[in-house]
Amino acid sequence: xxxxxxxxxxxxxxxxxxxxxxxxxxxxxxxxxxxxxxxxxxxxxxxxxxxxxxxxxxxxxxxxxxxxxxxxxxxxxxxxxxxxxxxxxxxxx
Length: 93
Known about the structure:
Layout: H1 2-7, H2 41-58, H3 67-78, H4 84-92
């Protein structure tokens, strides 16, 4: 208040009621529907966790130079019917 008086500005105190009257009903805010093809935050976080587990757990760290190879390996492991033998057979064919 002192700053307002010093600046020559008008100062008014506003009292806001803490309890909302029961008679006032708030309309629900419409939510945005997820667009087809977009990734949700949960899916992105889950994918990030899987890659982090691969890099830190199985590979014990990676070089940035070979990051694309590790991501390809992770993508291959997510495919249906993935086995190490099948991957080796494809690589040697």
